[in-house]
Design a protein that fits this description.
The chain has helices at residues 52-65, 76-82, 84-97, 132-155, 161-164, 170-179; strands at residues 13-19, 28-34, 68-74, 105-109, 120-124. The protein is built from six helices and five strands.
Length: 199
């Protein structure tokens, strides 16, 4: 059964979500998606609940059916400069600004957002598993960011970014301990676990 398209009664509602907030390396990426009010899709859901193959199969569905979509990308140095929460808001604002159609309302995944000029919004916890427009945004943000990390992996293969996508896996942290950090690492994050008395 298909999720509802929109949260509000507005026809031109943009769903907004981000990917990569908890990573140690790479950008945070946001997407905004406006679907037609009558759009339905039984498989479209929160990208975290889908396999890589499912996400890649659904991406063209989102792009072909969306009335408009936008992407925002905030780099690791910018994240270090303004912190990850502000960087997430900035990425979301970029994505909204990139929409070819101006939305009447914004449905934001999560519980915090910095108001976008002249457009009302609602913050919706687990919105990416409740509304199709946010689910579509989660798929675009995740797949776009994964492709960016695969490109960065070719430059620095020792960190395994094609697999871990910059998340704090044991192998990623082991590589940081061995090789140090790159320009794509978030220096303001705890890149290595703090030593304990037993180390």
């Amino acid at each position: 059964m298909s999720l509802p398209v929109n949260y509000s009664s507005f026809s031109l509602e943009a769903g907004v979500d981000e990917a990569g907030r908890g990573c140690l390396a790479g950008p945070v990426v946001a997407a905004a998606v406006i679907f037609p009010p009558d759009f339905t899709h039984a498989l479209l859901n929160d990208s975290k609940k889908l396999s890589h193959t499912q996400r890649m199969n659904l991406r063209p569905v989102v792009l072909e059916n969306a009335l408009a979509w936008g992407i925002g990308v905030i780099s690791a140095p910018r994240i270090d400069q303004i912190n990850i929460l502000n960087a997430t808001f900035e990425a979301m604002h970029q994505a909204i600004s990139g929409l070819a159609i101006s939305p009447e309302f914004l449905a934001i995944d999560g519980n915090r957002f910095r108001t976008y000029p002249s457009i009302s919004h609602a913050c919706l916890v687990k919105g990416d598993s409740r509304f199709l427009n946010i689910a579509g945004a989660s798929i675009l943000a995740k797949t776009y960011r994964d492709e960016l990390m695969e490109q960065l992996h070719r430059e620095f293969p020792q960190y395994g970014w094609s697999n871990n996508k910059g998340y704090p896996t044991a192998d990623h942290r082991k590589a940081i301990a061995q090789w140090g950090v790159t320009a794509y690492h978030r220096k303001s994050f705890n890149l290595l676990p703090a030593p304990t008395l037993f180390d």
